[in-house]
Amino acid sequence: MLLALTRPVSPSIVECQLTHLAREPIEFARAAAEHAEYERRLAELGATVRRLPAAPALPDAVFVEDTAVVVDELAVVTRPGAEARRPETAAVAEQLAEYRRIVPIEPPGTLDGGDVLVMDGEVYVGRSTRTNDSGIEQLRRALEPLGYRVTAIAVTRCLHLKAAVTRVAAGTLLVNPAWVASDAFTGYRRLAVDPAEPAAANALALGGSILHPAQHVRTRARLEATGLAVIPVPMTELAKAEAGITCCSIILEVP
User: Fold this and answer.
1) Which member of 43, 49, 70, 172 has the greatest number of CB atoms within 10 A?
2) Which of 163, 145, 177, 144 minimizes the C-alpha distance to 235?
3) pLDDT digits 0-9 by tens, 48-67
4) What is the value of pTM for the model shown?
């Protein structure tokens, strides 16, 4: 079974952490409606959606991806780079412990799940404002004995690595080459976002389709031109919180 863990949008999302964006008003009801549509699409594509408990006092709690890195053998529970986000991890760890052995990131390490791109045995980790060398090394120690190869990549112009590159099909990446050195991904087919849509590289491949923010119409056209099936999902309010499509779920295979 394919399980998608999600968490409701917090009414306090307007107080979310921001690094590269100016703060704008976020309409809570609209953000919640976007998230509900996202969950509906996950279910349509074959995932069983399981909501974690709401956390109204944690503005960024909806962005569950940052709290864990899950592979077949274990789950690495992160230590987010933003201190205010660290209380988000307990509920996620409790849920994941039903399905995976838990390995926590310990101080002084920091690691955000949005900085981790897993593709089969390859694991790319962004060294960013949220993920430090200790966090990367702890992830390496957890995964390399299992046969994964962990590669660190500098991230400076966006919040997380997966804001700049995501997997959209087997052997195919969607990349913003202005935000990440795409030559780090030799051996993969690389599709570039439209330059007018720098935030369009974050996409979620699931069930033979790609979930992609509806506002990035030019990049969606590029994906469709290659024969990929793209499902647009509204993300305008959540995007004001520096969010992408992958941020709002943790997807894992379970018995």
Assistant:
1) 70
2) 163
3) 999 999 999 999 999 999 99
4) 0.97
